[in-house]
Each structure stands twice: as structure tokens, then as C-alpha cells.
Amino acid sequence: MDSLRWSRGWVVFVVAVGLCTPWALSQRRGSAFSKPPTNLKVLEVDDPEDLRPIMQNFDRSLGVTCGFCHNREDWAEDTPHKETARKMIEMVREINAEVFTWERAPRATCNMCHNGSVYPHFNPPAPAGE
């Protein structure tokens, strides 16, 4: 009976470590957010830590991790996905500035179209009369 309890204890411990490790690693100092950002062409931030929630929102909205757009050895390096992200950010800003102009209008976001997927999935309505 004690060996079963001992085994369960180890399983709980291993699962807890496995679940907490990614979070703990993301909190370490010396991350990409601890130094002033370079090569920002579209985003504007005063404090490097201000980038963290923005990037986390991109991750969740597209269902990706940092390495999807960034070279983890050189965060500032331009990549094709980073260039696409810049265009998408500008598109969202334009939608918010020129389309959603009425009082209490919704705000366009990445998640509005992507909904956790790298590529948006649209189901356009059938043409009228069909």
C-alpha cells in the first residue's frame, strides 16, 4: 500500500513539474523582454516589458509560439512571418480607424479572424438566390 502511495506521489510531482516548467522558464530574467527592443517598425512601446502582453496575444490569437515569427538567436532579425505580421497589424489599425468608427464600435483584433489558427478559416455565405 505504501508503494502505491509513493508511486502516486511521484506521478503528481512529475506532472506538476512538467506543467510549471514552461511558465517558470518564461518568467526568467534576461529574456527578450529585458532589453530595449530593436527593429520595431510598427509597434511602439515605452518599456520592453510592454511587448510581452502584445506578443502573448499574438501567440494565442494565431495558436503559435515565438519561434513562428522570430529567429530565437536574433529576435530583431526580419523574417517572412514577421513581415506578414507587420502588414496584419497595419490592416487591423486601418479597420479600427476607418471602418469601426461609430460610437461603441467593436475593435478589430488578430483573433477576430484567426481565432487561434495561423490561417483564418472563412465560410462565406452562398450567393443570393441559391
Description:
By secondary structure, the protein is mainly α. The chain has a domain at 30-114: Photosynthetic Reaction Center, subunit C, domain 2, CATH 1.10.468.10. It is 47% helix and 0% strand. The protein has helices at residues 2-26, 51-62, 80-98, 110-114. The model has no long low-confidence stretch (mean pLDDT 84).
> From the alpha-carbon coordinates, what is the Rg to the nearest angstrom?
21 Å
Q: SS-based structural class?
A: mainly alpha
Strand % is: under 5%
Q: Which parts are unreliable, with pLDDT below 50 for 5 consecutive residues or more? A: none
The helix/strand order is HHHH
Oligomer: single chain
Topology:
Elements: H1 2-26, H2 51-62, H3 80-98, H4 110-114
Short description:
The protein has helices at residues 2-26, 51-62, 80-98, 110-114. It has 130 residues and is an all-alpha fold.
Task: Give the tags.
Photosynthetic Reaction Center, subunit C, domain 2, 0% strand, mainly alpha
